[in-house]
Amino acid sequence: MSNEHNRFWEILDEVEICMVTTADKGAMRARPMAAYIDTQARSIQFVTDGDSAKLMEINADNDICLSFADAGKMLFASVTGKATVSRNRALIHKMWGPYCDVFFGGDPANADVAVIEVHPDFAEYWDNDSNAVGMAVELARAYFTDDGPDLGANAKLEM
User: CATH for 3-158?
Assistant: First the structure.
């Protein structure tokens, strides 16, 4: 795997919450969800309500887009892929954590939940090790010179 691919998975692992976008009868719907990154399987997973509208939307159209952002660290990633749904109890137990306790109660054995799993087809990331002050300085420098701003590393990846 390339260094760019490795950095992509590292970025996803650093950003806890992402926006999950599905298609809903021709309209796009996004909502924040806690991501579980499985770097070994090269997948991104989420626990959701067992009767969630997301599950019906994925059943109708399993194309999905995920948007990760940490403005404080200047880390951003976008993922497009296909989603699948699982109700496997062993997987639910494995993924169960603080977010699940808060949203679904403390009992993974009886919770009415499902797991959404996404295998990326394409991804893009933006990685800038500057803080907000450093970024402001860079933008000011670019404004007063003929050079464009250095916004950090950017990679478009086929997965």
Answer: 2.30.110.10
